[in-house]
Every structure is written in structure tokens, then in C-alpha cells.
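Question: Hello, beginner here. Any chance you could explain the protein record under this note? Any guidance would be welcome.
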Amino acid sequence: MSQGQWYPPEWPDRIRALAAGELTAVTPRRAATVMLLRDRGPQAPAPGPVVHMLRRRTSMAFAGGAYAYPGGGVDPRDDDRLIGWAGPPLEQWADRLGVATVTEAQAVVCAAVRETFEEAGVLLAGPTATTVVGDTTGDDWEADREALVARDLSFAEFLDRRGLVLRSDLLGAWARWITPEFEPRRYDTWFFVAALPEGQRTRDVSTEADRTVWIAPGEAARRYDAGELLMMPPTVTTLRALAPYRTAAEALEAADVQDMTPVLAQARLEGDELVLTWPGHDEFTKHVPAAGGGGGAA
């Protein structure tokens, strides 16, 4: 078992309660996260892109201390009205994301783009369908970013004010993971991949993170295996999947063939043990005593 895996100490008791019918699963909140990639220069010691990651503050109620990608929940206003849009039509996005309506597809993609701007200062939008904004580090951009974080400004209003269209063609849907039914905070999260636009740079602006880093996906997975970096199963899985690609563009192109079947953890009783599994991802299988105990990193 890998040593950097994040398991909350309350999971065994909650799994037992769910199995006994004493716990009602909460409806997961829609969310999106973006694996933002950047190619390294020709003098890099090894080939392949690096990915932008944040370490969540230890005080966070969900996944405190774990490394993750920029992301967060859907703003209900992302469903309100259609926005300026470039790239594949919303019908195509709805089919790819496995959602029922074009408004829901827009909301998920909006969440991915908005959260990347809120947490990393990178904006996947432009004045036309073939352009993208440049430097977003000015005071006026920062004021808009803070207004989005505070929910004083909707993403649609932000795009309208700036005369921008969302560049959905700069994103590729990569995976979908749903928080286990025994968790009190549940998310139905779509994972996207994107390349850092030319002229933009990431900024350490997230209030939910205490550290940011650009790191090769394979190196991040190796450090997880060594117990040096704490991560949740979907983060580790997507890092391993990104590791073989030689450029950000190559990874983005590969997004179209990634399996978007939702991954949901399952728990069952086997004798005197609780067995926690993620279908299709055996490395995360967890055995905990049915009588109590368990939790923490494993």
C-alpha cells in the first residue's frame, strides 16, 4: 500500500454506519478541477510537461494537507444563462461529460475555468474564439478575481464585462470521480486537462492552499509512493495517467480517449474486516478492522 494516501480517521465508523443503515448518503455537489500543464524548456533534465499543484491548508475540513489541482464547486449562477462560448458545442460537451442538459455542461466547464482563475490566476478565455488573454496580474484583474471568489460577481457577468468568450477548446475532459457515500462532504468532480496559455503565469493566490508547485506528474506520483506527498486516490490516478505524455499538447489531445465512467468507492464487510475499494483501481484497496480503529495515512 502506498504511504501518501489520504484517509480520514472517521471513515471506518462512517462505513460501518452506512452498512448498518444508520447513515444516509448526502447528494454530491458538482465540482471541477483542472490539471494545468506547462512544457519545460529544452534544457530540462527530463522530457515531459509539469503540472501545477496546490497543497491544501491543514485546517481545511476536506483533504487538509493533501496535494491537489486548482478546482472547486459549481456556482449555481453558472446554470443561469448561456455565456460567450468558443470550442465544441455544448451538446458535445454534455455527451462527453455524461450530463443531461447543455446548461449543466456549461456549468461544469465554467466551474473548471472560473476556479482555475480564482485559485491560480490563469484564465482560459479570450476576446475571440481564436485568441486568449495575456497577462492577468494587473490590479484590475485581481479585483475581478477577488470578486469572483467572494461570489460578488458571477462568471457570466465577468466575461460580459471583459468582452470575453470561454475557450472550451483549451480544455479536455479527463476523468470523473465521486466522493464515497459515507463522506459528509461529497463532490461529483470532473477532472480536466489544459495547457498554460502563452503570456500567462500562475500565481499563489488561493486562500485554501499554503503552497503551490510545478512538478512532473511522474515525480509527484513517485513522491506519493515514497510517503512524501499526501494525496487522494483521484489525484494519484490522474498523475500516473499524465506521466507518459511528452508535451502538454500531447496530453490535451489524449483527453478525448480517456474513460469518463464515474469512479465511486465501495465498502463491504468481509468477516472481521471492512474492505474499501475503488473499482478499477486496486492500489487503493483498504482493509480496516470491523470492530473499530483505522484511518489516517495508509
Remarks:
- The chain has a mean pLDDT of 88.
- The first strand starts at residue 29 and ends at 38.
- Residues 102-120 form the longest helix (19 residues).
- Helices lie at 11-19, 90-97, 102-120, 139-149, 155-162, 217-225, 233-242, 248-254.
